[in-house]
Write a structure and sequence with these properties.
The complex is a heterodimer. Chain A is α/β, with parallel strands linked by helices. In chain A, the strands form two sheets. In chain A, strands 1, 2, 3, 4, 5, 14, 15 and 16 form an eight-stranded mixed beta sheet that branches. Chain A is globular, with a radius of gyration of 26 Å. The N terminus and C terminus of chain A are likely disordered. By secondary structure, chain B is an alpha/beta fold. Chain B has twelve helices and 18 strands. In chain B, strands 1, 2, 3, 4, 5, 16, 17 and 18 form an eight-stranded mixed beta sheet that branches. In chain B, helix 8 crosses helix 9 and helix 9 runs antiparallel to helix 10. The longest helix of chain B is centred in the middle third of the chain and has 31 residues. Chain B starts with 14 loop residues before the first helix and ends in a 7-residue tail after the last helix. The N terminus of chain B is likely disordered. Classes of the chains: A alpha/beta, B alpha/beta. The interface between A and B is large, with 76 and 72 residues.
Chain lengths: ~500, ~450
Amino acid sequence: MKRVLLIAIVFIFAGMGAWPASAQNPSTIFIQNATIFTVTQGNIEHGGILIRDGKIAAVGKDLKAPDGVAVIDATGQYVIPGIIDCHSHIAVDGSVNEGGPAVSSMANIADVLNPEDISIYDDLAGGVTSANILHGSANPIGGQTIVIKLRWGKPASALPFEGALPGIKFALGENPKRSGFTPPPGIPPRYPATRLGVEEVIRQAFIEATEYKKQWDDYNARRAAGEQGLVAPRRNEQLQPLVEVMEGKRYVHSHCYRADEILMLMRVAKEFGFKVRTFQHVLEGYKIADEIAASGAGGSTFSDWWGYKVEAYDAIPYNAALMTERGVVVSINSDDAQEARQLNQEAAKSMKYGGMTANDALKMITINPAIQLGIDKRVGSIEVGKDADLVIYNHDPLSVYAVAQQTLIDGQVYFDRQKDLAGRAALEKEKQDLLAKEKKAAEEKKDEDKKAGDKAGAKPDAKKKPDPKKKPPQDANGSASAVAGGAL
Amino acid sequence: MNRTPIIQRFCVALLGCVLLSTASLGQNAKPAAYAIKGGKVFTLAGAPIENGTVVIRDGKIAAVGANIEIPAGAQVIDATGLEVYPGMFDAATQIGLGEISQVSATLDVTELGNYNPELVAATAVNPASAYIPVTRASGITEVIAAPGTAGFDAQGGGLITGQASAFNLAGWTMEDMQLNRSVAMVINWPSIQTRTFDFATFSIKEKAYSDAKKEYDKSVNELSDWLNRARHYAQAKEKGSPALYERDLKLESLVPVVQGKLPVLVIADDERDIRNAVEFCTKQNLKMILGSGAEAWKVKDLLKEKKIPIILGPTERIPDKEDTPYDKPMTQPSELFAAGIPFAFSSFGTSFSRRLPQYAGASVAYGLPHDEALKAVMLNAAQIFGLGDQLGTLEAGKLGNVIVTNGDPLEIQTQVKYLFIKGQLTSLANRHSDFYEQYRKRPKPTQ
């Protein structure tokens, strides 16, 4: 019971960590006197951004705040487009892996979005405004994925990025062949256990999906031709997403490491007439950057992670720069709630490793992931008509010294550092009050129990009584992110 | 904060290292002397010296100053436009003890059993590990490998996990590299954990508080017992003849600990765990260094009172608890500094050791003075582990562990241009730069 109460308290606090952007937010905001990195249209010193009804209405050097609008004074500060994380597992309730079957395309991350995951707020505070929420990498063909905006404080139904094409996670290499996973006693190992088997699983699934698509195409054609009394094919939740892949209605985001497995998936994709939208992690992408560029796929990689498994031993921090040089659209992703809130720093590493320009580095966390997710008409740069998803930093965002001050989504302030700081004392007080209340309730209950015990004539067992001076148990570790960590 | 204008440098990334030799373990036969000339010298023992010179001879710093005579025959390193610092020190890693964290055959981090005080990290540090050249390319010249510790690349485990070793990140053998084979006894402080993550089933396991507490009490009693036995062992050894006791490696290793000669690096994060560990070490009269210390900010008065320094874990991490302020891991160093508690940054990793300057830089963004952050990656760890007379500042007589950078060493884009370890110019080439050079030359495939 105590535990339940404590969990309840934690939840209340999770909800109070920020101020749900509300209808009170003004519909017109003017950001003045900022250094603006538009990403696609150059940098503007002492510039202004006019936001109206959630969209960027004007950007420029000589803009003046219209009368009566709310003004954010960004003197000495920097504004960039909201950061887009092309590989995230935040905002997911429970495990991200449906590891049972080798093809788990029937599972959909959209069904388990958790708007109360504190990581949403943490990442907002690091300037992230949109994220590609992926299924784990336990299966050659994994679950369905969804792009969200980090609208902290809103219900799950308000998280999805409107109009963004859904995706599906594929995975190659050690994870789908379960190299680092020992099945619990009594459970046989799951096929496949080799990269050969991984390819076979994907090909077989697409053979079946092709058959399934044909059944439906035939049915629809005959129905359209006016044929009566037809029975529709049985709907297959596992194959349907693959049909959507072949029809270009769903993006493939494939987890991969080694060059050979990347080439393998390209061959399979060609055979079945679909495109891989992004290769994720793609740590050996630099070895076959020309082939990836020619395939039209994007590469979404880590800045400098390496060595944590055999297939990551050839990973190099020059990967992003080398792939970019050869024409691949590259993004830097997080795969981790902490890494997400320092993506600006991670992007800057390509300036050190490989001599990328500052603007190209910024592209890798803004317009490039937007292109990879097919949302570049809406977000990824500061341009008139685009969503007002913006981050304001106190320092050059490619510096380790930059701290996000405000994060806006759809022209609403979802994170404000000053408000966060100002609200801490009240939160702490509320927490202490709740703890005191619970402690008091526990003591009262103890007294009641004692009375009841006395009445029954039983001798109270002092040893078994909880000591009210002792702190309540605290939980450590085992957080949701530890679970997501298995998705590397 | 304006002290760091961003320089958008598109450096010739590897020119420096290509020009240097890529002898397999980084160092050539040593010239008699080097003179690093023309750079801005940050000695960390006084104000920075514009246009200063650092002379290195026979492995040590021979002279530092503005008008230093360059000895005849010295190899001159032109550091015009560059900055010169002591090398960085990552004070808790598993470097050399683990290569690929998912392949157990490559790991020597975590031994079986809970009490292994006789184990010494230096025994199994692989001088040919790829992590050594990769890490030093980011300006880290020396590290401590701590057995049994957990981090991004290691699960860790055990209670008394062995002796941590300090060593330079270059050398043909551990004998070349070592600074001190035994700088601290590592203890993973037992935590009262009601929820643990079970990797075998990939799920969270819960247990009753009373059961968790029982396990905790048992561990603490065992720890006390080991230390008491070590005291008796020391007494017997001192007073008795060898015939009266059998040689016991574990107890023998604990003798310097109970005598207060060897510090204990106690890894603890939760407030309660830190308090318990401090209470325990005080009672046992141990010389405690706190490791990781995520919630040290809740225990500042106690740590200050007991003069306990901290080897901090990565600052860039999500708070362990949901109601902790989102930026606490980054603001904590400035709080500790304000409270007068000495600390050093560390990675608790292998692959992320090269992020050490980033961890320090992030804390500057959240209030730590920049010069204090420099000390916390260059000097403080040396002082905390008793190596302050050899390392940490650019002063005559100290070891020639020196880096030359093209800017602020804590900034992401800054490159290390030259690196000296034990007074030798050391290659910056590594597994990653080698692959880069190899694959950037790949011709376009013909299709």
